[in-house]
Design brief:
With 218 residues, the chain is an all-alpha fold. The chain is built from nine helices and no strands. Helix content is 75%, strand content 0%. Helix 4 (66-89) packs antiparallel against helix 6. The chain is globular and about 55 Å long.
């Protein structure tokens, strides 16, 4: 589960988004709202997976149920295909990489839209959603009491949010001097977003594929 959480935490596009949010005049308000939306998105998606798994998440022999293996296998294939697609779309010249057009309007977003943006980038992200579902399935299949399942999901969400919480913490504690540092982080993330996404999706997809295959043949 920790590897999946780290994969969620390394999300260049959401990191760029929160840096842009923090650079707006209402950054100290909108930044925390964005982070809250992100945490709610991850938590809700993971909770749905725990609810679906329920007591059937683990077999009578304390091994993951067959459906868990099938889900991980499918999510692994999806991530590998996404990684291959991202790799083909990467720019040969990283300096020519551009931000999505909607990011240019972030400074005009209302607080509700900022919250919704954080929610969407967590729960509807093509990389993060499969990883969160896989983490929820792993927790569900461990045969843990409900309290320990919730605690495990909370650990996943905290680790998966570190990438966003880092820029937020820098701004809240350092203030204006943090601007140059965040600009450097943003520029790096913009240049390497596609390549980082491709590698993460491919590696984690292969891991999920192997995990799912192991469950199905065990």
């Amino acid at each position: 589960m920790l590897g999946l959480a780290a994969g969620v935490a390394v999300s260049p596009l959401p990191i760029v988004a929160i840096i842009l949010v923090l650079a707006t005049p209402r950054g100290r308000l909108n930044g925390p709202l964005f982070a809250i939306g992100w945490v709610v998105g991850l938590s809700a998606l993971g909770a749905v997976m725990l609810a679906i798994g329920g007591p059937a998440g683990a077999s009578t022999h304390q091994q993951p149920a067959t459906w868990v293996g099938g889900l991980k296998l499918a999510l692994g294939v999806l991530l590998v295909l996404l990684g291959a697609r991202q790799w083909r779309r990467r720019s040969v010249d990283a300096s020519q990489a551009q931000l999505p057009k909607w990011m240019a309007a972030i400074d005009r977003f209302t607080p509700i839209k900022i919250f919704g943006l954080g929610l969407a980038l967590a729960a509807a992200n093509l990389k993060n959603a499969p990883l969160t579902l896989a983490a929820g399935a792993s927790i569900s299949s461990a045969g843990l009491p409900i309290g320990q399942q919730i605690a495990s999901l909370a650990v996943f969400v905290i680790i998966g949010s570190l990438g966003l919480l880092a820029p937020l913490g820098v701004v809240l504690f350092m203030g204006e001097p943090a601007k140059n540092m965040l600009d450097g982080w943003r520029d790096w993330a913009v240049r390497h977003n596609t390549a980082v996404m491709a590698v993460l999706c491919f590696v984690l997809g292969l891991k999920l594929f192997g995990d799912g295959l192991g469950i199905l043949i065990s």
